[in-house]
Structures are given as structure tokens and as C-alpha cells.
Amino acid sequence: MKKVEIYGTPVCTYCVMAKDFLKKNNIAYTEYNVATNNVKKEEMIEKSGQFGVPVIVVDNENIVVGFDEKVLKNLLAVK
What we know:
- By secondary structure, the chain is an alpha+beta fold.
- It has one domain: Glutaredoxin (3-Layer(aba) Sandwich).
- It has three helices and four strands.
- Strands 2-1-3-4 form a four-stranded mixed sheet, sandwiched between helices.
């Protein structure tokens, strides 16, 4: 099983879409609220070079900025 982390905020529409996609496909993930967790916010910026959310990290090596269903399906082997 792949390790999936999502950095986002509660009011981000694309974050909600990404989490819904993961839930629908039975993919476990760890969520970090970067609106309230400055340590995770800095970690997100370091990993991605981005301030925007969501940032989705798969297996600590693949970084997806924004919600890109096609890329996530490929990375997570979802049909």
C-alpha cells in the first residue's frame, strides 16, 4: 500500500475533491491542515516549493500540486 499525505486547508475546494477521490478509491491517507499547523506548512513548502494547496505526496517521492485526478490514478494504480 502506498503512503499518501495531503497538505491542505478545510476551505479548499480542491482539497475536498482530492480527499473524496482518495476515500472513493479506498486509499488511506494522512491529512495535514496547513492553516493551523505551521510546522507542516513549512514542510509542505520545502517539499513542493508551493504555497498553494493541496499538495499531495505519494511514497515520499511523488509530489502532486493541486488535484490532478489523472496523475493520482496513475501514481496510485487506480482504474
